[in-house]
Amino acid sequence: EELRAEVTRLAEGRKSDAAAIQAHRTKIDELNAQIADLVTENRRYRSIMAGIVDRLRADPPATPAELLDYLDPHVPKEDQ
């Protein structure tokens, strides 16, 4: 009887372990998606910064108005 109870307890533990593992995998997938979004945002930011630096190093350097014109299509617009 004790052996049967122990087997039942271990079987229930395995089920809860499997559920916990699945929950962790789901969380890992969510975090990986967030990381991918941040990588994309970082690449866009670095590209924009490189464009600004190139325009400032040009001869003659870009004016503030030209820099703003360059930035306008690259910067996401917020909903009003």
Question: How would you concisely characterize the structure shown here?
Answer:
With 80 residues, the protein is an all-alpha fold. It has helices at residues 2-57, 64-71.
Characterise this structure.
The chain is an all-alpha fold and 80 residues long. It has one domain (2-71). 80% of the residues lie in helices and 0% in strands. It contains 2 helices and no strands. It has helices spanning 2-57, 64-71. 0% of the residues are buried. The mean pLDDT is 90.
How many individual domains? 1
Helices, by number, come to 2
Low-pLDDT windows of residues: none
Count every beta strand, where a strand is a DSSP E run of 2 or more residues: 0
**Portion of residues within helices:** over 70%
Give a short account of the largest sheet. none
Please specify the SSE layout and strand pairing.
Elements (H helix, E strand, L loop, with lengths): L1 H56 L6 H8 L9
Give the key terms.
0% strand; mainly alpha; rod-shaped; 80 residues
